[in-house]
Prior knowledge:
Layout: H1 2-15, E1 30-34, E2 39-43, H2 58-72, E3 80-84, H3 90-103, E4 108-112, H4 121-129, E5 134-139, H5 150-158, E6 169-175, H6 183-192, H7 196-208, E7 212-216, H8 221-235, H9 241-255, H10 260-274
Amino acid sequence: MAEDLSRIADALDRMAPVPLSVPDFESAEAFVWHVAPDRLTPIRSISRIELDLLVGINRSRDTLLQNTLQFARGFGANNALLWGARGMGKSSLIKAVHAYVCAQGHPLKIVELQREDLPSVSRLLNHLRASKHRFLLFCDDLSFAHDDQHYKSLKAVLDGGIEGRPENVLFYATSNRRHLMPRDMIENERSSSINPSEAVEEKVSLSDRFGLWLGFHPCTQDEYLDMINGYCVAYGISVSPKILHSEAIEWQATRGARSGRVAWQFFVDLAGRSGVPL
């Protein structure tokens, strides 16, 4: 009998896990939210590059930096959606801006939330709301597929319902899609729904809830080469400009693409061949 009761108690614990203890937000600048069980894992070293090394996105950089500084100083700021071409520095910009703001003396925390964990966001917000710190809630590669209901959970972050979004939380997301869902999904809604306009509006209007839309577009060849030149200067690698540009153009031709990510991948290879640690 005692063994049976123990198994029942264990099963109940799994169904209703112990509530998350108050996180020690003083232990790190960055955290990752996990569920089952709920927990905030501190990140000791954030993978990011310097803000000055992000080339070709000056307008988006300046706008996001100003918005983040306003928030860190306790003033009004908007949730931001960074959308557009892949590999053009959307997530890198968010992490770089966070580092810059912290370096200016503003103790801003960043919390990464996975798209799959959006249904748990209300529980996360309750923990952040109770803290004295200010938080950037960051969701990378946010998008929704057909019959995906996670977008409804996102409204808790953007609108906050009757309680409102916590004053100390700002939400930044990146996506390859301006409306967070593929165009064919929108067209299917229009063609198959009983009231197509309402079905489309419910989902498309989600992106309208972001106060800032920052678009990222494919870079030109000059911008691509400027990125690589900037990396070389920053890490002290000296190569003949003619040879450097020739190799960089050949590299992007073999990839069939030109972006900030491709520029960094070329530079990693160059640094390795030059014996320079990164």
